[in-house]
Backbone:
């Protein structure tokens, strides 16, 4: 009888962990990038990223609409979309892959993980390992990442006339809440 009670308790515990580790959508996501070059700093933000994380299978998909990046200058935004990112031809950046690392969404804590997959920007996919942190506080999970992208890796052409205004490497940050589906 004692073994049955212990087994039953283990099953209940595993089921509650499995439920806590289910599918989540990325909510209130803020994606930003910063480019520091000799003549000019360029930064933009985007609040329209969408994503799904299946913590059971550890798979994720994040889609970022390129035209949703906003700049302090309308001209910068126009050049970004038309001349560099070709947003009509490549409307979204997509990162798809799996999460590596340990976490427990049923317990408060800070969980360093890696998002490993293919990042498609400007129609060019590159394998990436992006360090991220899942934070659970009061039953609410958030995820943050900070990483660099070389524009040349995604065949984004920077004309030599403006090379001192646009950095070869751009810093990207992602912050978002994870809401149970």
Residues:
């Amino acid at each position: 009888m004692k073994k049955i009670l212990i087994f039953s308790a283990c099953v209940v515990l595993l089921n509650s962990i499995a439920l806590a580790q289910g599918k989540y959508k990325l909510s209130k996501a803020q994606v930003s990038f910063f480019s520091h070059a000799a003549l000019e700093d360029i930064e933009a933000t985007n609040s329209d990223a969408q994503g799904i994380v299946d913590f059971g299978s550890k798979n994720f998909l994040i889609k970022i609409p390129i035209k949703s990046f906003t700049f302090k200058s309308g001209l910068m935004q126009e050049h970004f979309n038309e001349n560099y990112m070709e947003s009509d031809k490549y409307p979204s950046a997509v990162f798809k892959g799996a999460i590596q690392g340990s976490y427990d969404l049923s317990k408060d804590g800070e969980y360093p993980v890696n998002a490993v997959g293919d990042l498609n920007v400007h129609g060019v996919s590159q394998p990436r390992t992006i360090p991220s942190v899942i934070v659970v506080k009061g039953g609410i999970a958030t995820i943050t990442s900070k990483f660099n992208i070389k524009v040349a890796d995604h065949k984004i052409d920077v004309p030599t006339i403006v090379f001192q205004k646009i950095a070869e490497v751009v810093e990207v940050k992602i912050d978002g809440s994870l809401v149970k589906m």
User: Anything to note?
Assistant: Residues 73 and 91 are 20 Å apart (CA to CA). Confidence is low (pLDDT under 50) at residues 2-20.
